[in-house]
């Protein structure tokens, strides 16, 4: 027992210390998540705040805590286990992408998506010219300029697809018009953002010709995954359906082997393993019960156990003390203003033009598209791991991501939800179905509908875990 609190440089009992830290983090995450749920905030904010609490900004100022409970030498274990959670989460995100929904809304969504990519991207690229010198202070190794510009531009263009879906689902908006439009836009945004981030990672590992070769190899890899590997997985899936053995363990093992191999290849290529996991999820079969049963199983262990460690590690590396004067505070405010306006304004005006809906509807689209949260935090952590971001700039961007996510729900209620009358049932006349959007755990505002009141229709229960 005493060995747990021994000199952290010796690390004779790192496993026991890690389990103790894991327990502490999960308790703080759950407590913070409960408090934040009272004001309808996503749990990811609680996870990052938990990391900030145990890190150098709060409890890290206590000598015993920083030396024996959460010594900096133990943070790497959180990063390692958290990266496993990140890979599984990105795989799940690929599984979750509904290509049919994107196809149905692409005409309206594409214009909004392009505007909410180009304007933030250009704003981020311009801002990166100024931030590069700030990033290089404090003796930080200067990253490749092209990689830095691409990374800042990419980080400005993200919309947090999973957090957005959770917010829409918890307010029974997931199947409404605003839900389908914003989900489609966010999916397009994130796909383009991850591709851009992968290119930034390639240039960070090797500038000039090396970076170009990495990009070309990555394009070849994507083509290979979307043709040969996807064809093989689809054939195997269809064969097992004919045998009524869709959940065959061989298929499950095959999918996970593809996931691991794809993540490994991208990592050694210098892009980052998250991109390989994301592509592996996209190419997996979406029909039948395989995807429907695989998704919640992975989501449960990833979202509830592993991913909190990833974001807690983010909080540990967030040192609010680095923003210790008005100059850096002003830069943080500038980043927040540019990031918010560059995302909200193009989404707001393009939504009004292409949907012909009310100003409230357009305002809600702009607010929802400004949700960064989970995806932005992942991107920022990758930038820190690739040594593109200094700890000070990382903290500034983390603050921007937290604030933009935190203000989404209150602003959405103020602008749109307080006058919105949700439809209990959403009918699709083309295939004679009724979709009942619910979340689990059940939210108080959800209505229980007697099934015997519904006739001559197929009933789809559309559920999503609220996190």
TrEMBL record:
GO molecular-function term, one example from the UniProt record: antiporter activity
**Where would I find the Cation/H+ exchanger transmembrane domain in this sequence?**
27-409
The portions of this protein that span the membrane are: 14-36, 48-65, 77-97, 109-132, 147-168, 180-204, 210-229, 250-283, 327-349, 361-382, 394-416
Can you tell which superkingdom this protein's organism belongs to?
Eukaryota
Subcellular location per UniProt equals: Membrane
Where mainly located? membrane
Q: Which UniProt keywords apply?
A: Ion transport, Membrane, Transmembrane, Transmembrane helix, Transport
A GO CC annotation recorded here is:
membrane
Q: Which Pfam families match?
A: Na_H_Exchanger (PF00999)
Q: Give the record's membrane topology.
A: Multi-pass membrane protein
Q: Provide a GO biological process annotation.
A: proton transmembrane transport
* Record-given protein name: Cation/H+ exchanger transmembrane domain-containing protein
């Amino acid at each position: 027992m005493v060995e747990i609190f021994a000199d952290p440089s010796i690390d004779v009992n790192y496993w026991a210390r890690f389990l103790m830290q894991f327990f502490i983090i999960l308790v703080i995450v759950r407590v913070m998540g409960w408090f934040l749920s009272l004001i309808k905030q996503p749990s990811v904010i609680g996870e990052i705040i938990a990391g900030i609490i145990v890190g150098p900004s709060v409890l890290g100022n206590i000598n015993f805590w920083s030396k024996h409970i959460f010594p900096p030498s133990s943070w790497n274990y959180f990063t390692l286990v958290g990266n496993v959670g990140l890979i599984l989460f990105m795989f799940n995100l690929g599984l979750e992408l509904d290509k049919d929904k994107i196809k149905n809304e692409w005409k309206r969504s594409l214009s909004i998506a392009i505007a909410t990519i180009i304007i933030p991207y250009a704003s981020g690229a311009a801002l990166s010219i100024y931030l590069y010198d700030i990033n290089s202070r404090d003796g930080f190794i200067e990253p490749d300029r092209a990689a830095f510009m691409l990374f800042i531009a990419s980080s400005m263009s993200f919309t947090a697809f999973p957090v957005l879906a959770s917010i829409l689902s918890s307010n029974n908006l997931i199947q409404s018009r605003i839900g389908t439009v914003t989900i489609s836009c966010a999916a397009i945004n994130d796909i383009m953002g991850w591709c851009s981030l992968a290119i930034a990672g390639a240039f960070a590992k090797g500038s000039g010709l090396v970076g170009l070769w990495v990009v070309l190899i990555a394009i070849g890899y994507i083509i290979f995954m979307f043709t040969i590997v996807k064809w093989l997985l689809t054939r195997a899936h269809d064969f097992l359906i004919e045998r009524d053995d869709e959940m065959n363990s061989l298929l499950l093992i095959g999918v996970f082997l593809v996931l691991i191999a794809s993540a490994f290849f991208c990592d050694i290529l210098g892009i980052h393993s998250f991109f390989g996991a994301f592509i592996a999820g996209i190419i997996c079969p979406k029909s039948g019960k395989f995807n429907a049963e695989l998704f919640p199983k992975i989501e449960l262990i990833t979202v509830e156990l592993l991913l909190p460690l990833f974001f807690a590690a983010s909080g540990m590396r967030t040192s609010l003390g680095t923003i210790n004067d008005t100059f850096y505070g002003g830069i943080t405010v500038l980043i927040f203003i540019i990031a918010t306006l560059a995302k909200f304004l193009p989404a707001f005006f393009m939504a009004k033009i292409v949907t012909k809906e009310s100003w409230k509807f357009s305002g809600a689209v702009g607010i929802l598209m400004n949700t960064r949260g989970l995806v932005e935090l992942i991107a920022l952590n990758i930038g820190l791991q690739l040594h593109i971001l200094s700890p000070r700039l990382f903290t500034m961007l983390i603050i921007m991501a937290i604030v933009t996510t935190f203000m989404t729900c209150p602003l959405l209620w103020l602008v749109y939800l307080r006058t919105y009358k949700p439809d209990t049932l959403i009918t699709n006349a083309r295939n004679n179905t009724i979709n009942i959007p619910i979340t689990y755990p059940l939210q108080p505002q959800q209505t229980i509908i007697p099934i015997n009141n519904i006739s001559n229709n197929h009933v789809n229960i559309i559920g999503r875990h609220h996190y």
